Amino acid sequence: MTTTDTxxxxxxxxxxxxxxxxxxxxxxxxxxxxxxxxxxxxxAVERAVAERLADGPAEVVDDEDVQLALLxxxxxxxxxxxxxxxxxxxxxxxxxxxxxxxxxxxxxxxARVPVPECPRRDAVGxxxxxxxxxxxxxxxxxxxxxxxxxxxxxxxxxxxxxSLYQLKEADPHTWAIxxxxxxxxxxxxxxxxxxxxxGDAPRMHAELFAxxxxxxxxxxxxxxxxxxEPVEVLASLNLMSFLGLHRRLRGAIVGHLxxxxxxxxxxxxxxxxGFRRLGHxxxxxxxxxxxxxxxxxxxxxxxxxxxxxxxxxxxxxxxxILFGAAACLAVEGWAASAAIERWSQGASALRPxxxxxxxx
Length: 360
Description:
- About 65% of the residues lie in helices and about 0% in strands.
- It folds into 2 domains: about 25-110, no CATH class; about 125-345, Heme Oxygenase, Chain A (Up-down Bundle).
- It has helices at about 5, 25-35, 40-50, 65-75, 90-110, 125-135, 140-150, 150-165, 170-175, 180-195, 205-215, 230-245, 250-260, 265-275, 280-315, 320-345.
- By secondary structure, the chain is mostly helical.
- It is globular.
- It contains 16 helices and no strands.
């Protein structure tokens, strides 16, 4: 398969389309970001956040309004939002508002996702514990369900569910590179280089995913389906941005990536099998087939050379490495469970909107 015949040259980054608010907090955030930049506008966000958190510790992981507000604030550090002034990225009031929401998110996640025990806390012990965690993951397998049961509409929905991350694949984890040194840094760069096509732009994994979307008649523009994404997807994205943006959580983003890679190779083979069962060709399944071999290698690098060696370098980060892995498995598991439950009931896994059936 040649890249020139199947994938267009990587396009310029486009910003996230302005999303539709899902409650009072996200409405204030969207209105503020899309209006003139001013201290008064930023203060409106501060007041909205304070009001949302006024009653003490809040549950925010499953709150669509909070998760969309966080997504918008994080997107300022990714590709931006259409029509939004880039100066908002480092606005002190917005950063303070985001920090308050992050504190609520972290508090809830740490309450819901305990740090796994790890008796042997050297490089080998941590790596082995991570492999055991992913092997023992009790979450239902979305990929196995998809391989055997998904229909064409559910195949389109799967790509939509994955698109907001996959069309910028690897970016949140890349923030960890300048925060590492030595062997862990080299390991992370090796993984990320593959994610970005090894210097060949059309082979970037985000571009391969865009090809899969086009194969099913979907819009491959970044963020085109942001309003269709359920809260579980938003929470998954926000977890990555949260861990990646904070140096103090460098251990957690490393653990997250390790778990992410360790649960990728076999699921992607199953996703590819599901698309083939539905009659899709190698161009559409290329993205998934590419990950079968690549991530079988990446999981070893991420577990042993990245996470294991970071634990060896900085033993104080072991608990965060384990928490990041456990949080990844938990949040991804919640998203998988929600999709399977909705599909099993004959419902859509996406938020309401017109059908995804391609236009004739």
